[in-house]
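Changelog-adjacent note: as of this version, every example in the card shows the full chain rather than a window. The one below runs 282 residues end to end.
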Amino acid sequence: MKLFPLPQQLAFVAALTIVVCPDGASAQAQPTGLPLWEMGGFAGSLTAPAYPASTERFNRNLVLPYFIYRGERLSVDRDGIDARLRLASDYELDLGVSGSFPATSNDIAVRQGMPDLGTLLEFGPRLRVKLPSPGPGWRLGLDLPLREVFEVNGGTRGQGLVFEPSLALDVDNVGAGWSLSAKAGLAWGDQQVNQYFYGVAPAYATALRPAFEAQSGLMSARASLGASKSLNPDVRVFGYARMDYYGLSANTASPLHLQNSSPSLGLGLTWTLGRSEARVGE
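Full-length structure tokens:
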């Protein structure tokens, strides 16, 4: 779901710089030879549904700092903040954090009069399994994350569990200096998190929005593709596209479930202001 206080502003900075800075290393441990850490700035635009299966969208233009750390036991990259434990040569267990933007119900026609959807943070373990490489420069892996969802909206409260198994593929130097990353998987939510997105309490029911009690089950099937290229040692451009299919969701009967598919898109660039002399694998 890649659902984004701390202070709230810091949550946005951390989550967005982690999620949108492509690094070409999601399927397994970091490739050797990269700087141990990098810091710099990010500028870009993104568009995504206001919530899963919503017809309303949010569009954001952002300028933010970013930080990447590629430690053996701790990493900070596009997938989150991960503390890793290597169980065997092909297995890692990590503890990660990610997040998503809030959505104001007054800006969403079907949710008028309902509580806002707050800033969401996901926290929990993930098993990462290295699969046989399809070829040189290709990294294939299976991700099995189970995370608790926390809402930050005038306080902090748990909003259920999400399980998101996925296959992840990264390919270095596919041509003209481009690197690609692809991912396909499913997002499953328990009753509480599905109720958060799709439930309508009797107090908020109307003639056009009947009361609805959500069930646990599938939220979406999704596939994503990212591409990035270094223009010079300090500037990198990237694009990102993800398609979510909600037609198999356990809660398609909800009055808040308005469409069966929706894309998320992002474009931007990063510029590195500093990096370590130490390299991964040294």
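Structural remarks: The chain is about 5% helix and 55% strand.
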